Amino acid sequence: MTEYDPQAIERKWQARWNADRAFEADADPAKPKYYVLEMLPYPSGTMHMGHMRNYTIGDVVARYKRMCGFHVMHPMGWDAFGLPAENAAIERGIHPREWTNTNIESFKRVLHRFGFSYDWRREISTCEPEYYRWNQWFFLRMLERGIAYRKRSRVNWCPKCQTVLANEQVVNGCCWRHEDTQVETKEIEQWFLRITKYADELLRSLDQLEGEWPERVIAMQRNWIGKSQGTRARFAVDGLEGASIEVFTTRVDTIYGASALILAPEHPLLSRLVAGVEGQAEIEENVQRLQKRLTRAADIATAEKEGFFVGRYVVNPFNGEKIPIWVGNFVLMEYGTGAVMCVPAHDERDFEFATKYGLAIPIVVQPAEGKELTPETLRAAFTEYGRSVNSGPYTGFSSEKAIEIMTADAVSRGFGKGEIIFRLKDWGISRQRYWGTPIPVLYCERCGMIPVPDEDLPVVLPPMAKFSGVGQSPLASVPEFVDVKCPKCGGAARRETDTMDTFIDSSWYFYRYADAHNDKAPFDPALVRYWLPVDQYIGGIVHAILHLLYTRFFCKVMRDLGLVNHGEPVKRLFTQGLVLKGGTAMSKSKGNVVGAEEMAEKYGCDTGRLYTLFAAPPEKDLEWSEQAIEGCSRFLQRMHRLVSRHAESLGGVPAGTRFDVSLGSATPKEKALLRKTHQVLRRVTNDFEIRWHFNSATALLMEMVNEIHAQEPLEEGARPAVAREVFELLILMLAPMAPHLAEELWEMLGHTGETLAHAPWPKFAPELAAEDQVEVPVQINGRVRGKIQVESGLFEEELKKRALSEPKIAKLLDGLRVIKVIVVPDKLVNVVVG
Asked: What is the CA 740 to chain-centroid distance, rounded?
């Protein structure tokens, strides 16, 4: 009996897979395809076990789908541009390319070592000209269609660095490099992509992702897009001829309760408003102070409200009352109109502001039921719909009716209109950094802004630049890059020195995988039609909003360019939990990482893979435990001993033999072994196919090994054909999770032909896999309406199907809308109806 040497076994089978080109797949319309993808990794430092969970889950899915007969594309590449590499260049005195490529080689070595089944022919790196050329090509197509445009915009600015900062470089309102330097806001020219053109479609098409994407991701995207239906109303400025301020509100029914109008510090009318008022100098000083202070949308809820009166009033268009104009730090120009009406009694933020500054708090909506609100008892804003009061001719209407009538009246009286707005704003893609895609635009004094012609792409980053991190983009200091001839008039021109947001790189990369080395186009549409959309995308919840929103936007743009024939890039999304150590996510900065290579040296890669699958359901966070990983190591050693101990005795039974004796003629031991094996196979198949409970599947295999040990010696009462079937099914089930050991055990049992990479997934025998019968109550909205008899161990989807098809339940549900079905296997089915 041989000893289990994981490192030797892993090297052996990785070499075999490489020699066999086991994981390469080319488009073949005759075969069903499956495209599984983990989110594009940023190669920073060395890989740790926190990284590995994502790739392990993806690899299990890829291997399982191959075994199920799918033509699987499982690619890998590198999100190689970005701020951290440029920071490393500044700090270490090296080039970002050197830093990036060193990390890529390190990451790639570890991914190879763990046996992940990637088609490495498709590898991409976004910092290479052959990739970012097509970023530039897409930009030019969007520029032609008015999707890409340039305007002045407010950005984060560090006065000490004299440079623009990305949001992630702002820490507690200060520069990431100078903790004593408050970040300011500044207006500069920036490039944008008009994602708002697709806002309504981005929102609507989320409906087709329901059930395939996590509910919270869909909710986060809906909130980020933020569609609001409301009323735009115009308030005339008292005493300032022709001046007015517009506000957008979803609750025009509360306008009689407005006690102030509050402007953003950057509101364009402010300079005119404060001209000539008493205390002008002090007001202007306060405006400048708030303009310089960084206030982000994410901080508004928790930031202390601050504001001041500007010395003028507006006229409420509905009742003619004058209300004061204030400036507030919680009103942002990029949302709505940059002005809000302050209705303290019916908005929590306004209540806090009015309480602090002593503004009136008139009540204009009362609850539809219950105790009436009074100024004396009001301790918090009442924000629900109710019944209008103190609202002139609209008093007595429900909030919904008041909104309808008041909006119509605003239109007929000429001071307002109904409107739909979105929280989503256009995507600012300009970065004053070196390590990114150059924006392919020239500026000529005669011709103005000129797109770089397609034939001159790619605009390549110069190999050398000063990485001081101070002032404008480092590219501006490279004359051979900046100074060019205008392609239109031949005169002197200069290049754009901003680079693109690296979210551009990751917004379309999975299309490039389908045709990774095309030098004539971003990809061949025919290849994309075969492989795309992505069937299964796997990554962290941290990318739930921006990355996924931008990929969806790019897909719709590519569709409108005629490059793709679908509107959503990803069919199914899975967001895995974090790997924690000491209660916090693994991170080099926290000093709590477990190195992937270090772990592989100690236990073997299969042990590391199995542990990340077994320690918690894949969607939950996993707390690293040395004791638990040792348990996984012992299990694999036990598997190796078990098979190697019996391999010789099974040599007389041909590989692949299945026991062809009915249960009636089987011995008690054979019945127990076969029943247990096929029951486990049925449940593991369900875990892989439907639930993704890889932790449960691993536990079932451990339980099965225990059952085999309980039946030892197998030779007494179990024929070799039974033992072979049990071992082979066990190995096949193990193969997606611990592929190296599974291959070794498979060979041990006499399989010397193809590897397990394309072995067919086994089918369970229904008569052997049947479980004992149990009675399961079926509820409708929590009330028991019937019971069904089903076999024990029936999984959620099948149990749900049985419950809904039960005649009594089906009759009760006729005509009702089923909102959700909650299933507790073996115990309960609850149907929630609306």
From this structure: 31
